[in-house]
Amino acid sequence: MPAPIIQVALPSPLRRLFDYRAPAGAHPDELQVGLRVSVPFGNRQLVGLIAGITDQSSVPASKLKRASELLDRTPLLPDSLWRLCSWTASYYQHGLGDTLSSALPVLLRRGEPALARQDMLWQLLPGAYPEHPAVGRAPKQKEAVQVLAKHPHGLSHALISQWGLTRDALEALERKGLAQRISQSPHHVSEPQPLLKEPPLQPNTEQQAALDRILAADGFNAWLLEGVTGSGKTEIYLQAIEHCLQQQRQALVLIPEIGLTPQTLERFRRRFNVPVVILHSGLNDRERLDAWIAARDGEASIVIGTRSAIFTPLARPGLIIVDEEHDLSYKQQDGLRYNARDLAVYRAHLEQVGIILGSATPSFESLHNVQRGRYQRLRLTQRAGNASPPRFQCLDIRSRPLEGGMSRPLIQLMGEHLRQGNQVLVFINRRGFAPTLMCHDCGWMAECRRCDARMTLHQSPAQLHCHHCGSQRSVDRSCPKCQGQDLRPIGAGTERTEEHLLSCFPDFPVLRIDRDSMARKQAMQNMLARIQSGEPCLLVGTQMLAKGHHFPDVTLVAILDADGGLFSADFRGPERMAQMIIQVAGRAGRADKPGQVMIQTHMAEHQLLLDLTEHDYSRFAERELAARQAAQLPPYSFMALLRAESNAAAQTNQFLDAACELAEQIAAGHQLDGVELLGPVPSPMERRAGRYRAQLLVMAGQRSGLHQLLHMWLPALEQHPLARRVRWSIDVDPLDMF
Ligand code: ADP
Ligand code: ZN
Ligand code: ZN
Q1: In Å, how far are 342, 390, 393, 546, 645 from 574, measured between CA atoms?
Q2: Cα 440 to averaged position of ligand 2 atoms, centre (Å)
Q3: How high is the pLDDT of residue 260?
Q4: What is the total count of domains within the chain?
């Protein structure tokens, strides 16, 4: 029988496996798909996973290298997670090795053993007591026996000095047969505990109706839980999780950003008496691996994390929840460009469990899945706990002067709310002082030297920043073109709005919340504490303000500019704008203080704005979905975007032209009707950070047609000589066309 050959998935951008001879001394029976193995690769040593075992290879036997060592005895991942990763690699056209590597905690990628860290505990043996003759006259040992007697389930070694004990004394007791050390998982629960720490809230009628459907179901079911902000979606998650835990199963919860939602996380910990692991960016590599293992081995009952947590293995999966399912942060924008929300649905199907996608402003993709009967829609139309919904109005700013981005009537309205002792939230989605610096004499504008973009003027310190490549320079004193002295900031960003508000309302604090002002640690926490105190004040901020928080004393939400979204070059512009408006509006108001939302616009009669302000998000979405259908845009068609960049425009274009030709040949050769190639065209920002960017869009009426093409196209593209001379990537289901 020929010696076995292993096909290894390695962290390499190449979309293929690599053949090796089995490691020396490895018995053929030990070889299994899913084991990690370390192998020589070029002049490096890499860790990969065995993806196949065969007895032949296209590599001649004399050139076949031998793998160095098997790193696991049993497969690292449960079967379902292996299948999820294989599917992800194939769907997003990414190498399996690189996909698996992105899915694993860093320490496992480096070959660390996949074993849980154990706590060491000291425990008395039966028959030990302080006056035991063997203890004799050793006071330290006697004291140790007394302390251990108070810890029948064992005392953690890490805590012994806090109890005044020494290792020597404990080891002496061990030698005398009076104490022993035991090891235990840090998530171990010594006695069965009641599941809940606090009772659930009594569901209202709508919540009950939703829960009835969720709890009665079995196997795979996808629910779109569409509930206005504050309608009690989180309470539904909690009660659905309770049901899942009662069946001894685990729940996986995806949230958009951990740092911004401490209150939500606190609600999970407060409710349940079970081990909850939270995968946040503050964990070190070891903690991350421990959490991963606790989930895989079934010790963590609830796993909460952002995007990448979708790859956490679970021993006994029971329920998946994706909160704020419309949020763009579920899409990874580089490397493996996956969408964790979509993978979550696929995973729920694979594991045959239920999935709840929650949002006040569902993505059009999810609404379309409801239309097609793939998801069941559950609606919560009322705020829980009697809070009334905010009132929406448009403020027509045509021919009104704006200062700091605000019109006079808006400033007046703010004054009224402040004088009544309330807080005002001002939303403007641009940080910095002004988006442009312009010469009033000749019209010159400050541009980035490395990008096709204008520089944003920042005030403290005064500098020009490019928000696309990060470059900065000092502010020009005179116009480089005409030497004119009259350089003026055009438009408004958060800093300018803040400045103008300070001059209008000198008696009220103005709190600015954007990436610049929140850069310092704790800045957000301090700011939130001030807002929660309820003093009348003005909050000015970007989308950082829009997520997660609840500001009960805010009674006026001012949206300075909605027009950008209506006329965006991106067909998703209106959807994003509406989601943003509703999310920001949802921060405000409570029972005794209903909120008012004022939207400044030049297009007060625009149908989409009317739908949104006079009806609701659903009405808006219906009309906009119909427009997408008429134009055959997603979710009614399917897209993949091939992006390329290099130091020279000609090189970028040459590659994309070749790619386009290749795709046309494949489509024609395989009668792939309904696949369309658009481009190549320069990217909307052609030059960024000194590199020339262009793109080719592939569109198809059917997902299967698109994927058939991609499966043939990408391997061929990878082999193309021009492919080495540019940086390129494929984005399946792109959310961002830039
Ligand atoms: P969402 O997740 O939809 O924004 P939450 O679950 O956070 O809504 O609920 C909003 C507020 O209403 C919270 O303070 C919550 O405690 C309260 N709440 C939710 N459900 C109920 C209920 N059935 N009875 C009373 N209060 C509720
Ligand atoms: Zn000039
Ligand atoms: Zn730049």
Answers
A1: 22, 21, 17, 17, 29
A2: 7
A3: 57
A4: 5
